[in-house]
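Support request, please re-run this one:
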Amino acid sequence: MEFCVRVALRRGGMVHDIGKVAVPEHILLKAGPLDPVERRLMEAHTVTGEHICAPLKSFRQVLPIIRWHHERQDGSGYPDRLRGDAVPLTARILQTADLFDALTTDRPYRRALPQEQAFATMHEEVRRGWWDGALVDALEAMLGDAPALVASPAKAERTRLRELVQSA
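Re-run finished. Output below.
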């Protein structure tokens, strides 16, 4: 992978959710489902994050990651309902790692899933048309090549994912 794409992914991995600074904490930490107003505020974090980072010339290739990391392959994501290859590859790569991280980390509304169950969930969502199946397969293969990671806690998995993105 070329240098500037790796740098964009590394930076995107660190700041993709920066727009959540504009989301009230009670929404971020809510244990139950979001109501329509709360959902709109949460979904706005991608556009807010893009606006926060837009003045940074060195972030030009990071902006698509920030804005579109919640798009879905079938067009049901947000903020722009992009579909298929209209979702930039860098956003899809970050989205795949972010999804795995979200599933394998405790959340206010559910406990972390084991790695195998997280991938089963991800593959089911690929069948629904949400994610790039080739990227889910690639991540699963990379983690399968790291046997120590399989028995590790979620924090170690996130650290290894960051390392994989940085070395890509």
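The chain has one domain: 3-167. The domain at 3-167 is CATH 1.10.3210.10 (Hypothetical protein af1432).
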